[in-house]
Description:
By secondary structure, the chain is of the alpha/beta class. The chain has 14 helices and eleven strands. The chain is elongated and about 110 Å long. The relative contact order is 0.09.
Amino acid sequence: MAWIIIGAIVAVLGSVTVFQSPTNTDTAPLSARNAAPDGAMAAAEILRRHGVTVTESDSFATTTSLLAGKPRATVLLYDRNGYLDSAQLHSLLQSADRVVVIAPGFRTLTGLSREIRHAGVVPNGTSTLEAGCGQTDPLVAGRVSGKGAFLYTGADVTCYRPGSNDGGMYAASADGRLVVLGSTAVLSNDLLQVEGNAALTLRTLGPTPDLVWYLPGLGDVPNNGTPPTLEELAPPWVGFLGLWLAVVALLAVLWRGRRLGPLVFEPLPVVVKAVETAEGRARLYQDSRAVGQAADNLRAGTLTRLAKHFRLGPEARAEAVLDAVSRKVNQPAQELRMLLLDHRPRTESELVHWAQSIETLEQEATAP
């Protein structure tokens, strides 16, 4: 009976928690309903308090319908996955009074403007940017956050340049109907209060009474009846790059083929003598000038044979072998260690002299 009462209490508390939990579960970056650090709920609420009607939209159809009733509205567009095509972007630009696009990719930026182009990112170590232009909104806002922002060039108005020859984080057309802002951090809840981020956000998004906050979704991808081909999805430079990679691959095949030499046909099974194997490996070491590898093999072979001679077993350590050799040839173990273990030949002549020295030592140690 007690377990039934406890289970009922847990069920009631769980139901109360579910019904009292906030309905806002939007976690999309830069969403007007997202209160997380990467959301933009703070900016949307401040705009509403200043008399701007902020309407969220997550579909192209809804946005088009809203703009039909609000032709003087501003559209905030953040299409981080590049769902919209050029026709949809052109329709937005024609229907809205202003379009403020945030950190657009290549596809989005090309669909909105042929003049504005990507110019890289803000260099590392640059945390803030000065307006550096005569545009009213950036000039009044002043310094803003610039870390990780994108840069654009080719616009009639370019502000927030990290250098004199770089593009700017803020780009706008001459008539002001298209504004490109290359930073999501400026609008985010996390950094809205830093520097002049809030001022730039409010002045850029709030000049008209209506603001449509549009974050495209997967349902906005155009459906033409047939899936796009690989050629349609690929950028125009892929064709040249593919041809160039084919040429490079062909040259690499020819280069490696000449290095390996012609194929040798030999009947199987083949019995290769140990001497031939050793000589062949030695020639490979000589051709590749692998002096260190050859020295390691000689050292390992010498230690193995000495350990077998003194019956130390295959698992004997090098120190034990050196102690046994030291007692046999009556030389300090430290000198033997410097000769056999510590000495590292660097040239082929040094390798030859060293090999002769350890061979002499082995002969003395194994002499009856």
